[in-house]
Design a protein that fits this description.
Elements (H helix, E strand, L loop, with lengths): L1 E6 L3 H10 L6 E4 L16 E2 L10 H20 L3 E2 L3 E5 L2 H17 L5 E4 H7 L9 E5 L3 E3 L1 H14 L3 E3 L4 E6 L4 E5 L4 E9 L5 H7 L7 E11 L10 E4 L9 E4 L5 E4 L3 E3 L8 H14 L8 E12 L5 E4 L6 E5 L5 H17 L26 H10 L6 E3 L4 E2 H9 L7 H8 L12 H12 L22
Parallel strand pairs: 1-2, 1-12, 2-9, 5-14, 12-20
Antiparallel strand pairs: 3-8, 4-8, 5-7, 6-7, 10-11, 11-12, 13-16, 13-17, 13-18, 14-15, 15-16, 19-20, 21-22
Helix pairs in contact: 1-5, 1-8, 2-8, 10-11, 10-12
């Protein structure tokens, strides 16, 4: 029996799992997909928000500011790239200038430092490609950028290195609570027991709550479509550029990613059935807004488009609490933006306050919070590279030419916690296939490496789990 079971392998569930391993607890994470970080944590903007947008005294406001303050330490320990590039909320009318003043006052009430409203002239100095129609901006220097799936994978991998267990392809379809524990059953007939269950299941968190006997959690989905530009255009902007927010969210943004690309999006489409397909209409809207924000965005350097679905609560705030009707069931639901930023603080609160209210927490003196990044080789000096190649010649072979990723890094991703089992799993860990050719050159060789390492046939290797097989059979 586990002390704590976490449902949901996103950034919130992953950081909670890692936080739990700081104590002498037997813990497990359940994920219904074939890999972690397959929901909202796979496809979002990667923005570390400063905290000026959320309503004061809300969970969003509190955990946003705390999470922002914690992000540098957490990413540093986990070997995840993070940079405070600063955020600019751009105004295009006198009315929007007034909104910026309201945002500044709200941010200061939330505890955000360094906020200032800058003039049109200074905005042009800071961003050479800003639209001529822009009149000014709210500048938040504490805003930043991080890779969301890299942070999720690193947190879960570090938790596993410290003793946590991961169960993928475990879709929870039944939850029974008896006098001693919860008994969770999967769609494949597997069962697992735990004293406490943490519901961090994203879009499915309302369903998980209902399975456990709590019908008070209502979760809906909102789809966002994105366009990603090649790193050749990476200096087009240097800050994260926002429009003034609406009731649907923070709107289309133009930003650098931590890996040097330019990201445009997302849209905000209310969904009955959550899907991640892109549409001509949605991408056209992203382009329209990007052209309003900036002069001549380099759309000719588009290398891919994608969509993600973010869960939100009908209450309009994060739901972070023990169930009012089911003792031992802890909800982390409706974690929409700024959920990525808030995740480290949510994890700390959930473990120390909510789990700690039921279980005795004894510090794990052997906890090691450090983790080596899955890809790192190209940033080393020549001397460092040669030393590694001397120990392991696989690091001397470039497999992904666009991103300069070596065979050694790919093999490490397949072997390390949590192990990559398919093409997209390797891509998320190493960036192989994320460059200009989008895997056109490296994918076949990576598939061969996966097959060899996992001891399966090439026909069994998938792009992203069952139903996405790459090869049907041998032709000659």
């Amino acid at each position: 029996m586990f002390d704590v079971i976490v449902i949901g392998g996103g950034v919130v569930g992953g950081l909670i799992l890692r936080e739990l391993t700081k104590y002498h607890l037997n813990v497990c994470l359940l994920e219904k997909a074939s890999d972690v970080s397959m929901g909202a944590s796979k496809a979002n903007s990667g923005i570390v928000h400063a905290g000026f947008d959320a309503t004061p005294n809300s969970n969003k406001a509190k955990f946003n500011v705390l999470g922002n303050e914690m992000m540098e330490k957490v990413t540093g320990e986990l070997g995840v790239k993070f940079r405070r590039n600063g955020s600019l909320v751009v105004a295009f009318s006198a009315e929007e200038i007034e909104t910026l003043k309201e945002l500044k006052a709200r941010g200061e009430q939330n505890g955000v430092s360094g906020l200032e409203i800058i003039s049109q002239e200074r905005l042009r100095e800071m961003e050479k490609n800003i639209s001529d129609e822009a009149l000014g901006a709210l500048y938040a220097p504490t805003g930043g950028i991080v890779c969301p799936y890299e942070l999720t994978i690193a947190a879960i991998g570090n938790a596993m290195d410290n003793g946590a267990k991961l169960e993928t392809e475990f879709e929870v379809v039944k939850i029974v609570k008896n006098e001693e524990c919860f008994v969770l059953s999967s769609s494949k007939g597997k069962t697992i027991e735990g004293k406490i269950v943490i519901n961090a299941a994203g879009l499915q968190s309302g369903k998980i709550a209902a399975l456990a006997g709590d019908s008070g959690i209502e979760i809906k989905g909102r789809k966002g479509e994105y366009i990603l530009l090649d790193r050749e255009s990476g200096d087009f902007v240097s800050h994260t550029l926002f429009f003034t927010p609406t009731k649907l969210g923070k709107g289309i943004l133009v930003t650098q990613t931590e890996d040097g690309n330019i990201l445009l999006g997302p849209t905000a489409e209310e969904l009955e059935n959550a899907g991640t397909d892109t549409s001509a209409q949605g991408l056209a809207f992203v382009i329209e807004k990007a052209r309003k924000m900036c002069k001549n965005p380099p759309l000719f350097n588009t290398i891919t488009s994608f969509a993600g679905v973010r869960a939100y609560s009908s209450k309009g705030d994060f739901i972070i609490e023990e169930s009012k009707t089911v003792k031992g069931l802890i909800h982390c639901a409706g974690i929409e933006s700024p959920g990525l930023t808030a995740a480290p603080a949510i994890a700390k609160f959930v473990v120390e306050t909510l789990v700690g209210g039921s279980l005795r927490l004894i510090k794990n003196e052997n906890f090691n919070g450090a983790r080596t990044p899955d890809y790192f080789f190209k940033n080393l000096s020549t001397e460092e590279k040669n030393a590694i190649i001397a120990r392991d010649p696989s690091y001397g072979k470039i497999v992904c030419r666009c991103e300069q990723i070596t065979e050694g890094e790919i093999l490490r991703a397949i072997r390390a916690n949590p192990p990559a089992r398919d093409i997209d799993g390797v891509k998320r860990r190493t960036r192989s296939g994320m460059g200009r050719c989008q895997g056109g050159f490296c994918q076949p060789y990576i598939a061969e490496l996966i097959a060899k390492e996992r001891g399966v046939s090439l026909e069994q290797v998938t792009k992203c789990g069952d139903g996405s097989e790459l090869i049907m059979g041998v032709t000659k």
